[in-house]
Structures are given as structure tokens and as C-alpha cells.
């Protein structure tokens, strides 16, 4: 009790001394209340320490006590007011009546704009498959089966009897859905097995599965990037990674599409700046086979650069897993680079693996971190168990088709051989207005209008906004609808339709949504997916069909006036 | 057997007859009385959910617990870095590379979550139906070891509201047949060659079910939301989001660059104030009017078990000319007399809501998500929605599962079965919720919610409850920060139509035992469950169960 007693005396005297005589009475009653609360404070745990502090502090300097009190009040005020984020200066005060008037006046735009007549053909041109999307397929409105060059099932695994058997086995023991996120009882034996299989197959320490191919990049990258981290990115990167970078809010530097020399130049320029700073997380971000251009990335040079400049490498192998390399282990195997040189590899299970979902492989701490902090992993249900089993089975099929561990898998070499054959044949038969843009190892052949012909028709070099490239910040608005892009796509669609109608062959075209692309987009491409089981005869038929249908389409297209005339045809599609 | 396997073993062979397995996936209804129809009385206001508070001592103990964990964690980090530098390699800068993540960023995970890792991600095998088979394991440094056996637990952990997680029955037959007819995967985005007759049929069935003109399905629920908002909003749009919205909605909104305002969870007054202010103020700086305002809410909040106040939301949205997006991830199938979600439950015409989104994982035993709307909206999104052009389409077995389960619910397949499932989930949810209230536990959420969060508060009680119940053969999910506020750790019980009333009795008995042991019964009675209103409910198990069947069918629980 002694401490509060002493305080009482001290404090009253202090306050009395400070107050002018006329306010003495008021001062006294204030002092009494004040002291009462101070006494109360003394009874609280830790209160005596505060009291002691006040006492000591006052003894030396009463002004200091007042100053400290003012500081304390300011701190409390600041702490409470910081919650009101809105800038008061920017808000206008309205009365309730005025607000009612403003509400009545306000006319919002529709939730989404209606489909314009110019866009209608886009929807109508989506083929409707009857039954399986296999190497042969039936299409609504087309007589008889068509040869299917539009599905990405490069290894044709979805039609393999063994794959279907294991699928049925899992469904009849585990049902269809996983019914829970992986962290909450959604991780079944088959999921864990697939993670082990993927890690072993690709030669990585650990793997993690994602429920959808597209969300993988958008979830993996942001778990390792924050404001202040740095990514040096290929300027032809796919939409999933564009979105991932935007969300992560890291600093972005771009290097010219698939140009390691330019990358080296950028890294050299960045070096003196970075050397002065605290080390931050730095990534080089690129794709194995580029989704938009079909080219293969120059991995050896990039790996050399990332080691020299101490960057980590993020590689999207969605299009190259199960395709490139002697055993389908992707672009790393293609160039004989160990997987451990690539810090983060992501990929899709929905193409060569005839399944669904995505994955990421790499070192243990990197994968472990994702299990708790990667949004799409934590906040979404696991893959259906049978999907995991299908992917495992495909890996086993590839490995079993290899005689010994080192030589090539026969499944992959079948695909490689027919791909090679296709490129040779296509180049021979392709009309001069068309060019092959993809790398000749890519079984997804990109065929587009030749640059000269494009110029003749008045098509620009690229579509969309380059703001993201030049400023490093994505545009705040979506790209606008581009009629030239629409026409160029429509020319390709005409070739697709003629090929389908006259030869019963289904091919497709790149269907990027210009509005959503944050990077400049090159002209659209025809896409021809070669499968492992595609026969030489089918490729020959395709080459001839393509030659004849493109001839017909290009017969009336010589200059940009002809292009404008497409508009009516497009509206009547 | 001893714990020697470092990887999970193969699933043990199940030699039980099919009928036994089927019963373990979906328990037979024991009595006709154990059914209920969930519906909100039309015109009555939504009762405000009462979040009961524990005694102050519990709060203080919780804070002290975290304080101790943080102090001990920091001490261990300090000495660990000195004496075991190898274990901390990945946390420090080495050879010119920044660490994958900082010690600070990962502190919570390393020092708190890792200590109770055995309660998360328990690997399973087989169907996560009425029972779930978890592999027995033992935590060792840096991982787990297995002994090859598994533990069959009553399942309160999976999202299996209508009990369609089955490996027997019409849905499985449909899924198996689709593998023959359509293959395992479509291997193409929808816009290329990934649109089959089965996809269109599935979208038709879903649109009809939710009462909208058209729908689009996506292979993952998270992915549905993550990409949807990019097609709806841009930087001149205002998105108003409930503070407890799911991560996928928040992620999707973040991608658009739209201005986001958050309103207090379920607080309609706050929402109205926000709407009025925002319409009046317009866009920041320029004060031009907003292009449009989108209100994004969930039908049933998965961590709180609260329902959105749909009648009021629809009223506000119409009054303020905004667009309403409702995420029915947890409510579709699980709520309403015909299982059509919150609209059905509140008797509101689905056409008054602009976009109805939902997942197919939770009630239909499938996977993926959908959104449904007017034809002109869906038509535009078919050519302007990222998922349609860039991502895998839904695989055929999943489509077959969705179509067949929806047919069962609508009574077109196995007439009567769908209705029974709907009434069982409604009964089971109320039965378990009321039982827990009577016993004295604090549970959050609406009466009809199939998500029953059982509040634990203290972090140490999470592993205690999870482990004890696991040993008693009950699997539950425990959640805490960052999914919930740090102070209110909880066990989230997900009720299923597959559980029988007897299963629930067993669950109540065991939770009661554990609750006594680790002091979980601290409800004050304001949320109901007491014999005498106002008194803290502390019934014995026998008292609680005696009239629970009748009591849980009262219009208002408590």
C-alpha cells in the first residue's frame, strides 16, 4: 500500500502547483479523481511499475511528465484513427436526401456486355464433340468420324485400355470426388503415390499436386514472391503466369521472347543495382514449350545465366512434360540438364498424362512451404483420386516402355518420330501464305499466316497493349476488342471449317482472349496436335487437306480491302 | 505391427461383402422420424447468429498460450540456429541466394502448426463416406512413419453433405460407364475440342436445378472464382465483399484491379451504409460514378456456419441497382427443401440474383465448380471467360457423377432417395447442433447449417480433441489462424446425410467425454440449449439425448 500513498502526496502537490489560484477548487477535485484512478492502476498487475515510473519521471522534471502524457494521448489517438483508412479530405459530405437523389440518378452498366454481332461466330465455331475426344471423334453436324488433331492427348493415353481399367478400379473403390482439401482428409493413398511417382520420374526431391492446371502457376509463384522481390520474365509468357505475376506484386523486368542474349544484357544491367541492395528473392521465369508461340526455350543458356547471376529458375513445363526428352521428362531432359538445376518446375497433368490438374516439383522446403501457404492447394479440394491414379499409370507406362533406365522410351519415341515426319511433310505441302512457327520437336504444330502475307493484308505485328512490358505495371483496363485480330482469327477458322467439311479432319486454332492478355499478342495460329498414334497416312491427308482448303480461302484475299469484306461473312457465320 | 514404413503403405484389401461396404459408405436410415425439411419461414427476418462468449479466463489463457508458444518458438529458433545450423539452412541467405522464405514469414508454420502436424493431412484410402479410413502413423522428426494399418473413423471431416461419396450405386455406375464412352479426360480446353455432349447436358441439368437460364462448369471450384471476376470487373468497378469471403473470391477480385470495399460479416446495415456512400462518392479522386457495383457474398460461410441474409441482400441490391454474386460452395445441395441452396431455403426467386456460383465437390460427390446466370451473361462468358479458353475441361467421370447425383436429388433416378438424403442432412445437422448446445459446448452458426463449428479457443485443445476423437474412431477437422481469428480456434464438424442417428449419438457421447476432460463446456446459454432460459446449459448425455429428436425439429433450436 505504501506506493500509492506516496504517489498521492506527490501528485496532488504537483497539480496544485501547476494550477492557477482561481482554478484551485476545480484542480483539487480533478486531482482527487486522478489520484483515485492512479491508485486503482496500482492494484492492477504491472500497475505498480507504471506508477513507479511516473513518480520517478516527475521527480526529475514535471514538464517531462506532461510531455509524456501528451505523447501517450497522441499515440492512442493515432492508433484508433488509423483504422479509418478513407482519406477524409477526398470525401464530400452529402445529406441523406442528396444521397437518395444520387442513387436514383445512377445508371450502372450491365454486369457483362452482350455478345456483339462481330463476336457471335466465336461461339458458333466451337465444335461440339459427341462421345469421346479421342484420336477419332464424332462432331455434331459432321457425317462420320473425323480424325482429331485438336486434342492435346499427345500420348493418346485416354484411349489406352489399361488406363481405363485403373480408372474404373479406383472409382469403384474410392468413388469420384475427393470431398476435401488435401490438408483435411482429402489426401488419399493415390495422391501420395502420384507425388512420389512424379518426383522420382522427374528426378526431383518432392512433388505437390494441384486441382487444376491453370491455377498452379497463379498459386505457386505468389507463395514465393512479395513486393520487393524480383522476376525477370520472358515477354512471351502465358496468361496463367502473367496473372500470377500481377497478383504477387513483385518487380518485373522483361527480356525479349526466347532471347537469352537479351536476358544476359538485362541481368548485367540489373547487377550493379542489386549488388547495392539487401539480397532479395530473384527468379527467372520462363516456359519449356511456349504456349503462345510453340517454341522451345533455350534452357542451357538460361541455366548458365541463372547460376552466374544467382537467380532461381521457374519453369512451366505444362506443354513439354511427356513430350520432350528421351523419356518424356520435359525440356530439361531434352537438353540433358538435371532437374535439380531448375528450382521450381510446374506442369499440367491434363495434356500428355490424360488426367486433370497440375503439379509442382522441386526441393523439400519449397514444396513444404506450399502445403500451408499456397492458396489453391490450401483452399480447394484435392484432385479426384482416379485422376491421380491415371497420371501414375501413364508414368508407369512410359517407364515400362523403356528397356533399361537410360535408353529411350518407345512411347515417347513413337511420338517423336511421327512429329518429325509431320513437320517434314507439312513444310513440303504448306502454301506460301502460311508458315510454321513452332519448334520442330513440338507435337503441337503452330501454323500461322506468313509475316509477308500478314503485312499485305494489313495486319499489325502484334495486338493488344504493350503497357505491361514498358512500365512493368499491368494496364488497369482490359484490352479492347480488336477487329483485325477478329478477322485474322476468322481467316484461320475458315481454313478449319473447310478442312473439316471436305476431309473430315479436325484441327483448331489459338483461342487467346485478347481482352484478358496483359502482354502483346502475336497473330493467331492454327494448332495441329500430333498424337503418338497418328499414322503417316493421316498426316499426309491432313497436309493435302490443309493445302487445298487454305488455297480456297486465300484465293479471295489479296489486300486489306479483301479483309474488310470478310466482315459480312463473319456477321453471317 | 511396428511403425517402420517411411511412405504410406498400400491400402489394405477390403474383403467385406458389398452390402457391408455400402452401409459403411452410406448408413441406412434407421427410423422415419429422423428426417426434417429445412426451410426459412417466409417473411420472417433472419435471426442474428449468436456467437456465445467463453469466460474471460479462457481468453486470457488463450493469449498466454500463444505468448508461450511464441516465446518458446523464438528461443528454439535462436538456439537452433546456433547449435543446429544445418536444420536452418533454408531460412538463411546462402551462397548469394535469398532464402525461399524468411524465418518470420514461416514462424507460425514452423513453431506452431508443425507441432500438431499429425492432426492435419491424415492420408486416407477408400471412400470418404460415412466412415473414413485413415492410415495410422507416428510423427518423427521431419515426417511420419506408418505401420501399414488404418483406422476406420466416423467421418465428420469430409464435404459429403448428401452422402454421395460412394463406390456403390447409380452414380458410380454412371461414372464407370462414362469412362468407357468418353475416356478419362478430355485433354483440351472447352473452346478447342473440350466441349462434348456430356458437358452441355451437365450444364443444362445444373442450370435447371438452380433455376437459371444457363450455366458454365469448370474443373475446380477455386479456379471458377479465381478467373471469373476478370470477366466481370475492371478498375472502374466497385466490388463489395463480405469480410469472411473465401480465398478464391478474394483472389479473383484482386486479379481484376477493381476497387474493393469490405463490409462487416453479414452486417446488412454496414453494407447499406457502404452502398449509399459509394454511390454518392463515386470513384476515388475523379468522383465519376461507378461503372457498376458487384456485391459478392457466400451462401453459407464454411468457417462460421452462418447463412447470408439473402432476403435483405436482394432487397438492397435491387434498391441500389447493384449486382449480386452468391457463392453457394457449401449451401448448394445442402440447404432448402429441394436442396437448391439458399434461394430455395429463403424462398427467393433465383432470377433476382445475378450470378449463382457453386461447387460440385461438397454435396454431389464430384469435383469442380459452376456458375449460372441469364443466357446473355453466360453466352458472353463462353467466349470471354479465361477458364473456357485456357484450362482443362471437366473430365467425363466427374460429369457423369454430377448429372446422376442431380437426377437422384430431383427424384428422376431412384425416386424417394434424393428426398431422403435432403431430409437426412437437415435432420442430422440440427440434431448434432442441438445436442452439442445442450451439453454445454459453444457452437457457431445457423440452425440449419451442416457446418457445425465447435469452439475450442485454446490452441492446445486442438490437437487434444483431434487425437482423442481419432482414437475413439471419429475424424474431425480442426482449424485456427489464418482461417479463423487467432483467438477462436475451433473444430469444424461437417455433417453428412450418410451418418445415422445412432452415429450421431455415439459422436455426442464421445465429444461429451472429451469435453469434460479438457474443459470445453463453457457456453453461457445465450445461444440456446438450456432447460431454463438464461442458465448455462450443462445437461448430462442422457438428458440431452432423451428428447433430442423432437427438440431438434422445433422451429427454433434452443
Automatic annotation (TrEMBL), chain A:
<protein>
    <recommendedName>
        <fullName>serine C-palmitoyltransferase</fullName>
        <ecNumber>2.3.1.50</ecNumber>
    </recommendedName>
</protein>
<dbReference type="InterPro" id="IPR015424">
    <property type="entry name" value="PyrdxlP-dep_Trfase"/>
</dbReference>
<comment type="pathway">
    <text>Lipid metabolism; sphingolipid metabolism.</text>
</comment>
<keyword id="KW-0443">Lipid metabolism</keyword>
<dbReference type="GO" id="GO:0046512">
    <property type="term" value="P:sphingosine biosynthetic process"/>
</dbReference>
<feature type="domain" description="Aminotransferase class I/classII large">
    <location>
        <begin position="146"/>
        <end position="398"/>
    </location>
</feature>
<dbReference type="GO" id="GO:0030170">
    <property type="term" value="F:pyridoxal phosphate binding"/>
</dbReference>
<dbReference type="InterPro" id="IPR004839">
    <property type="entry name" value="Aminotransferase_I/II_large"/>
</dbReference>
<dbReference type="GO" id="GO:0004758">
    <property type="term" value="F:serine C-palmitoyltransferase activity"/>
</dbReference>
<dbReference type="GO" id="GO:0016020">
    <property type="term" value="C:membrane"/>
</dbReference>
<comment type="pathway">
    <text>Sphingolipid metabolism.</text>
</comment>
<keyword id="KW-0663">Pyridoxal phosphate</keyword>
<keyword id="KW-0012">Acyltransferase</keyword>
<dbReference type="GO" id="GO:0005783">
    <property type="term" value="C:endoplasmic reticulum"/>
</dbReference>
<dbReference type="InterPro" id="IPR015421">
    <property type="entry name" value="PyrdxlP-dep_Trfase_major"/>
</dbReference>
<keyword id="KW-0808">Transferase</keyword>
<comment type="similarity">
    <text>Belongs to the class-II pyridoxal-phosphate-dependent aminotransferase family.</text>
</comment>
<dbReference type="InterPro" id="IPR050087">
    <property type="entry name" value="AON_synthase_class-II"/>
</dbReference>
<keyword id="KW-0746">Sphingolipid metabolism</keyword>
<dbReference type="Pfam" id="PF00155">
    <property type="entry name" value="Aminotran_1_2"/>
</dbReference>
<dbReference type="GO" id="GO:0046513">
    <property type="term" value="P:ceramide biosynthetic process"/>
</dbReference>
Automatic annotation (TrEMBL), chain B:
<keyword id="KW-0812">Transmembrane</keyword>
<comment type="similarity">
    <text>Belongs to the class-II pyridoxal-phosphate-dependent aminotransferase family.</text>
</comment>
<keyword id="KW-0746">Sphingolipid metabolism</keyword>
<dbReference type="InterPro" id="IPR004839">
    <property type="entry name" value="Aminotransferase_I/II_large"/>
</dbReference>
<dbReference type="GO" id="GO:0017059">
    <property type="term" value="C:serine palmitoyltransferase complex"/>
</dbReference>
<dbReference type="InterPro" id="IPR015421">
    <property type="entry name" value="PyrdxlP-dep_Trfase_major"/>
</dbReference>
<dbReference type="InterPro" id="IPR015422">
    <property type="entry name" value="PyrdxlP-dep_Trfase_small"/>
</dbReference>
<dbReference type="GO" id="GO:0030170">
    <property type="term" value="F:pyridoxal phosphate binding"/>
</dbReference>
<dbReference type="InterPro" id="IPR015424">
    <property type="entry name" value="PyrdxlP-dep_Trfase"/>
</dbReference>
<protein>
    <recommendedName>
        <fullName>serine C-palmitoyltransferase</fullName>
        <ecNumber>2.3.1.50</ecNumber>
    </recommendedName>
</protein>
<keyword id="KW-0012">Acyltransferase</keyword>
<feature type="domain" description="Aminotransferase class I/classII large">
    <location>
        <begin position="152"/>
        <end position="511"/>
    </location>
</feature>
<dbReference type="Pfam" id="PF00155">
    <property type="entry name" value="Aminotran_1_2"/>
</dbReference>
<keyword id="KW-0256">Endoplasmic reticulum</keyword>
<dbReference type="GO" id="GO:0016020">
    <property type="term" value="C:membrane"/>
</dbReference>
<keyword id="KW-0443">Lipid metabolism</keyword>
<dbReference type="InterPro" id="IPR050087">
    <property type="entry name" value="AON_synthase_class-II"/>
</dbReference>
<keyword id="KW-1133">Transmembrane helix</keyword>
<dbReference type="GO" id="GO:0046513">
    <property type="term" value="P:ceramide biosynthetic process"/>
</dbReference>
<keyword id="KW-0472">Membrane</keyword>
<comment type="pathway">
    <text>Sphingolipid metabolism.</text>
</comment>
<keyword id="KW-0808">Transferase</keyword>
Amino acid at each position: 500500500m505504501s506506493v500509492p500513498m506516496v504517489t498521492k502526496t506527490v501528485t496532488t502537490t504537483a497539480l496544485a502547483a501547476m494550477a492557477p489560484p482561481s482554478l484551485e477548487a476545480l484542480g483539487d477535485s480533478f486531482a482527487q479523481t486522478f489520484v483515485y484512478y492512479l491508485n486503482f492502476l496500482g492494484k492492477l498487475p504491472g500497475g505498480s511499475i507504471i506508477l513507479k515510473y511516473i513518480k520517478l519521471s516527475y521527480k526529475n522534471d514535471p514538464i517531462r511528465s506532461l510531455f509524456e502524457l501528451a505523447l501517450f494521448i497522441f499515440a492512442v489517438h493515432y492508433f484508433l484513427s488509423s483504422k479509418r483508412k478513407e482519406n477524409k479530405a477526398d470525401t464530400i459530405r452529402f445529406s441523406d436526401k442528396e444521397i437518395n437523389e444520387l442513387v436514383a440518378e445512377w445508371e450502372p452498366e450491365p454486369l457483362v456486355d452482350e455478345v456483339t454481332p462481330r463476336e457471335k461466330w466465336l461461339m458458333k465455331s466451337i465444335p461440339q464433340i459427341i462421345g469421346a475426344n479421342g484420336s477419332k471423334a464424332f462432331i455434331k453436324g459432321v457425317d462420320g468420324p473425323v480424325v482429331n488433331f485438336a486434342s492435346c492427348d499427345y500420348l493418346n493415353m485416354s484411349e489406352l485400355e489399361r488406363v481405363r481399367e485403373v480408372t474404373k478400379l479406383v472409382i469403384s473403390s474410392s468413388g469420384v470426388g475427393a470431398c476435401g482439401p488435401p490438408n483435411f482428409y482429402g489426401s488419399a493413398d493415390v495422391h501420395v503415390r502420384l507425388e512420389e511417382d512424379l518426383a522420382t520420374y522427374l528426378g526431383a526431391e518432392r512433388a505437390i499436386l494441384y486441382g487444376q492446371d491453370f491455377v498452379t502457376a497463379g498459386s505457386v509463384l505468389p507463395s514465393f514472391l512479395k513486393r520487393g522481390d524480383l522476376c525477370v520474365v520472358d515477354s512471351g509468357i502465358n496468361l496463367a503466369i502473367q496473372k500470377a505475376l500481377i497478383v504477387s506484386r513483385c518487380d518485373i523486368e522483361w527480356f525479349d521472347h526466347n532471347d537469352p542474349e537479351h536476358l544476359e544484357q538485362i541481368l548485367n544491367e540489373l547487377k550493379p543495382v542489386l549488388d547495392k541492395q539487401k539480397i532479395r528473392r530473384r527468379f527467372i521465369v520462363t516456359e519449356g514449350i511456349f504456349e503462345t508461340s510453340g517454341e522451345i526455350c533455350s534452357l542451357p543458356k538460361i541455366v548458365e545465366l541463372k547460376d552466374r547471376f544467382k537467380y532461381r529458375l521457374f519453369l512451366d513445363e505444362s506443354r513439354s512434360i511427356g513430350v520432350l526428352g528421351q523419356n518424356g521428362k520435359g525440356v530439361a531432359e531434352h537438353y540433358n540438364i538435371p532437374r535439380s538445376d531448375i528450382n521450381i518446375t510446374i506442369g499440367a497433368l491434363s495434356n500428355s498424362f490424360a488426367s486433370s490438374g497440375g503439379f509442382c516439383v522441386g526441393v523439400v522446403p519449397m514444396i513444404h512451404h506450399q502445403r500451408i501457404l499456397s492458396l489453391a492447394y490450401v483452399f480447394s479440394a484435392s484432385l479426384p483420386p482416379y485422376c491421380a491414379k491415371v497420371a501414375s499409370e501413364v508414368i508407369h507406362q512410359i517407364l515400362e516402355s523403356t528397356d533399361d533406365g537410360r535408353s529411350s522410351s518407345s512411347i515417347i519415341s513413337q511420338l517423336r518420330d511421327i512429329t518429325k515426319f509431320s513437320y517434314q511433310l507439312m513444310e513440303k505441302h504448306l502454301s506460301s501464305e502460311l508458315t510454321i512457327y513452332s519448334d520442330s520437336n513440338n507435337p503441337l504444330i503452330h501454323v500461322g499466316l506468313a509475316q509477308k502475307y500478314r503485312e499485305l493484308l494489313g495486319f499489325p505485328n502484334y495486338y493488344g497493349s504493350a503497357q505491361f512490358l514498358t512500365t512493368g505495371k499491368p494496364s488497369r483496363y482490359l484490352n479492347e476488342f480488336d477487329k483485325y485480330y477478329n478477322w485474322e482469327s476468322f481467316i484461320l477458322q475458315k481454313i478449319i471449317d473447310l478442312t473439316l467439311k471436305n476431309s473430315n479432319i479436325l484441327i483448331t486454332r489459338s483461342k487467346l482472349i485478347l481482352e484478358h492478355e496483359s502482354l502483346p499478342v502475336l497473330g493467331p495460329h492454327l494448332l495441329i496436335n500430333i498424337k503418338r498414334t497418328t499414322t503417316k497416312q493421316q498426316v499426309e491427308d491432313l497436309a493435302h487437306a490443309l493445302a487445298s482448303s487454305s488455297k480456297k480461302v486465300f484465293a479471295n484475299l489479296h489486300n486489306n480491302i479483301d479483309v474488310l469484306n470478310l466482315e459480312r461473312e463473319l456477321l453471317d457465320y | 505391427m511396428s511403425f517402420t514404413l517411411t511412405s504410406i503403405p498400400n491400402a489394405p484389401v477390403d474383403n467385406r461383402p458389398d452390402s457391408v461396404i455400402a452401409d459403411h459408405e452410406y448408413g441406412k436410415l434407421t427410423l422415419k422420424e429422423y428426417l426434417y425439411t429445412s426451410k426459412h419461414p417466409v417473411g420472417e427476418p433472419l435471426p442474428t447468429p449468436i456467437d456465445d462468449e467463453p469466460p474471460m479466463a479462457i481468453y486470457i489463457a488463450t493469449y498466454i498460450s500463444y505468448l508461450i508458444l511464441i516465446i518458446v518458438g523464438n528461443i528454439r529458433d535462436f538456439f537452433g540456429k546456433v547449435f543446429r545450423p544445418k536444420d536452418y539452412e533454408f531460412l538463411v541467405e546462402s551462397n548469394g541466394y535469398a532464402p525461399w522464405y524468411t524465418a518470420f514469414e514461416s514462424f507460425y508454420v514452423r513453431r506452431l502448426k508443425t507441432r500438431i502436424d499429425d492432426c492435419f493431412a491424415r492420408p486416407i484410402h477408400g471412400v470418404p463416406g460415412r466412415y473414413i479410413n485413415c492410415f495410422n502413423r507416428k510423427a518423427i522428426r521431419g515426417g511420419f512413419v506408418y505401420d501399414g494399418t488404418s483406422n476406420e473413423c466416423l467421418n465428420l471431416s469430409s464435404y459429403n453433405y448428401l452422402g454421395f461419396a460412394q463406390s456403390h450405386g447409380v452414380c458410380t455406375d454412371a461414372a464407370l460407364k462414362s469412362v468407357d464412352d468418353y475416356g478419362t479426360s478430355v485433354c483440351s480446353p472447352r473452346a478447342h475440342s473440350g466441349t462434348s455432349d456430356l458437358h452441355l447436358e451437365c450444364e443444362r441439368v445444373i442450370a435447371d436445378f438452380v433455376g437459371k437460364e444457363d450455366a458454365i462448369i469448370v474443373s475446380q471450384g477455386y479456379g471458377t472464382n479465381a478467373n471469373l471476376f476478370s470477366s466481370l470487373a475492371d478498375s472502374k468497378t466497385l466490388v463489395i465483399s463480405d469480410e469472411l469471403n473465401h480465398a478464391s473470391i478474394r483472389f479473383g477480385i484482386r486479379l481484376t484491379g477493381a476497387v474493393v470495399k469490405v463490409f462487416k460479416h453479414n452486417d446488412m446495415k454496414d453494407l447499406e451504409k457502404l452502398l449509399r456512400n459509394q454511390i454518392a462518392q463515386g470513384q476515388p479522386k475523379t468522383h465519376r460514378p461507378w461503372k457498376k457495383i458487384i456485391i459478392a457474398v457466400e451462401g453459407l460461410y464454411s468457417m462460421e456456419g452462418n447463412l447470408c441474409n439473402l432476403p435483405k441482400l436482394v432487397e438492397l441490391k435491387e434498391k441500389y441497382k447493384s449486382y449480386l454474386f452468391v457463392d453457394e460452395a457449401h449451401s448448394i445441395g445442402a440447404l432448402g427443401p429441394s436442396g437448391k441452396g439458399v434461394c430455395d431455403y429463403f424462398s427467393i426467386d433465383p432470377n433476382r440474383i445475378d450470378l449463382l456460383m457453386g461447387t460440385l465437390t461438397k454435396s454431389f460427390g464430384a469435383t469442380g465448380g459452376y456458375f449460372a446466370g441469364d443466357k446473355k451473361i453466360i453466352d458472353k462468358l463462353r467466349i470471354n471467360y479465361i477458364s473456357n479458353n485456357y484450362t482443362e475441361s471437366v473430365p467425363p467421370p466427374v460429369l457423369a457423377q454430377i448429372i446422376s447425383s442431380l437426377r437422384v436429388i430431383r427424384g428422376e433416378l431412384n425416386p424417394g432417395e434424393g428426398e431422403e438424403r435432403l431430409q437426412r442432412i437437415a435432420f442430422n445437422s440440427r440434431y448434432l447442433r442441438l445436442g452439442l448446445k445442450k451439453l454445454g459446448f459453444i457452437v457457431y452458426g445457423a440452425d440449419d447449417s451442416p457446418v457445425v463449428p465447435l469452439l475450442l479457443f485454446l490452441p492446445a485443445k486442438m490437437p487434444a480433441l483431434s487425437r482423442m476423437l481419432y482414437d475413439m474412431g471419429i475424424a474431425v477437422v480442426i482449424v485456427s489462424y489464418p482461417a479463423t481469428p487467432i483467438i477462436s480456434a475451433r473444430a469444424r464438424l461437417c455433417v453428412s446425410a450418410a451418418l445415422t442417428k445412432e452415429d450421431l449419438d455415439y459422436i455426442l457421447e464421445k465429444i461429451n467425454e472429451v469435453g469434460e476432460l479438457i474443459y470445453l463446456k463453457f457456453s453461457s446459454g445465450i445461444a440456446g440449449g438450456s432447460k431454463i432460459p438464461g442458465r448455462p446449459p450443462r445437461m448430462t448425455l442422457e438428458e440431452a439425448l432423451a428428447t433430442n429428436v423432437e427438440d431438434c425439429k422445433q422451429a427454433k433450436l434452443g
